[in-house]
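Final report, closing paragraph on structural work. Over the funding period we assembled a curated collection of sequence-structure pairs, and we close with a single example.
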Amino acid sequence: MLDNVDPFIGTAATDLPRADGLAATWWWPKPQVGNTHPGATSPLGMVSACPYSGAYPTGYGRYAKNTEGVPEEMFDRLKASGFTHFQQSGTGAIRKYYNYVRVTPMTQPLDDLGQSWSLEDERAEPGYYAANLDTGVRCEITVGEKVAVHRYTFPDHHSARVVIDLSCGGLAIDLGRTVPLRAQAESMGHGRAQGTVVMEGIPLSVYLEVDSPGWRQMLWYDRRLIAGGTRLDFDSIRHTTLRPFGMLFMGPARAGQTIEVRMGFSLRGCDQARENLHSACGTGTPAFEAVRARTRASWRDHLGRVQVDGGTPARRTVMATALYHSLIKPCIADDESPNWPGPGPYAFDICTMWDIYKTQMPLLSAIAPDRYGALLESLIRVCEEEGNFPIGYRMARGADRFFRQASALAHTALADAHALNRPGIDWTWALVHMVDDLRRLYGEDFWEHGVVHPITHTLDLSYAHHCTATVARALGDHRLADDLDRRSRDWVNAFDPATGLLRDSEFYEGGKWNYSFRLLHDMRGRIELAGGDRAFVAMLDRFFGYGAAPVRQPGRCPDPAEMAAGYALNRFEGLNNEPDMEVPWAYHYAGRPDRTAEVINSALTWQFGTGPGGLPGNDDSGGLSAWYVWASLGLFPVAGQNLFLVNTPAFERAALRVEGGEFVIETSGHRDGPIGVDGVDRDPAPQYVQSATLNGRPLHGTHLSAADVHHGGRLHLRLGPEPSTWGHGIRPPSLSDSHPKETR
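Its predicted structure, as stored:
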């Protein structure tokens, strides 16, 4: 898988072939750009490094901020003013976070710092990025979990320099700048320096070593060198008083001479930053190739946890890159929390749970269980220290928690982990936090009235009550479990029985149709409320555009009337956004997995491709890419229910390396379909599951327990060109299966 990854996928505006058939009826309301970056990363590591133009939202690229349609270009070409550290991946609406500690190789005077130069001959692979600046400097970057190593090859010049700007942060858009509150920088001689900047309330420390024999090193402030100075201290910085500052290494360069910059980072001070550097790079010797090789080996290991056979080269490239993007975030740094003392993992860049809890977190649980456990441990610690489970959490103190997106989403991950007997978590203590968190914010109104607006939070909270009830019952607290279970049935209060849809309310990035078909814990009751299988399937068919005419997608700067008309279609958002990404599998609960196969086949064919424009929308920290991975495997995790739904895979054979060994999905009768970038001019015919076996025994239902997958085994699917009766009779489990319907 490693050699098939293309980190440039998703870095540019969406550029896919015009969809045909079902996919042509879907409407994309959100930004048509992946918002990924090609910079150097390590699997779930703390540090990333990337060329910096100041563009939205990662700091890389050419695009301005946008929330709808095709992004406008901020620059007419790819360029960079240097290379920064800590970037988002695939998100939108971030504005000012990260892109700290800019390193700029220059042959120009210090006065030119901040000028951008064209990027040429870009190259990227997992853990490595390289490009030429049009100044003639060849730039290479690699990273480890807590370190970055830069290597610059200079042209012949009498006064080359490497400039470290500690004041840099954020983006070059309105309200996009991050200004340090406090800072200190120290030049220690012999190619060594260190500094700390307090960004968004978090102290970020860097310790660096520069191999530049015969070069001078100095501090600088406001683009002026400080001759003989060894330390800068800023006790209070404001937007109006900020002047750039940092360190500089300067001297003559021969053509082809390389300068290596090794940087260790920590959120717990310069001493720990130095320890992190020396642990990864040793002391005083070139480390670029060693760090690159270790990170590449780590990526090979992580990407090797999913293997696929068959498919076109394009489909394998998209699959490998989707898996890569799924393993960049969240950042998990052991023993680095700036907010609480003591050892233990610190997870940040959870941006946001709303984006990743349905797809990416179950993927991490399956193939990276150790890091997944660290993520959950960190979430519990956040709840202890800050009073709630976060919906979004960054390397920032008390900012932008995204509560209007959703409520109580951590409960789904905790319930799944408990069902799998994950070690290392004090479940009695975790349950205390799960219960307490249900009462906060929107939860208080839900507790008192059984319904809350925005109405989607009613669904979130009823679902979280169900998840918490399963943990409480397993721990033997039946009284608590019964009370939580009763409240979990209040999902019904969110729906209008007259329409079978959610009640009128405000909706975050969608409408009532986008949210009305979520996979609830009581899908049997949900389908009955809609009028039964036939009525429910008819509503889904309308939602997915069966029989509808193709629609026109929003272009650049769409006007409000155009957007309102699009929302009025009440149509599937087509993987361009999160609200309805699990809805294709709702057909399973009505006995129509053939419809799921048709929708997923169209999505995989028309909405993902190779090249920079290969994503249909924001990748959102890997949430969209994880969707692609699961859909291609023919599985979909129902987060919080210890459940997987089964569908037609995109590959002849796939294997997941899981805790119990290997889970294999294999097919017979499989016929590879093309992917959109290969130039198909019609909707390729889907294939349908005719029968299935699990570990050699017939599987008549369309679902597996998560334990079936995590313990390893073999799922065999016999495919054919026509729908079958497989999965029509035995439905995935619902709360109504074993309990009478209740409301209050």
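DSSP finds 19 helices and 30 strands in the chain. The two ends are 52 Å apart (CA to CA). We thank the funder for supporting this effort.
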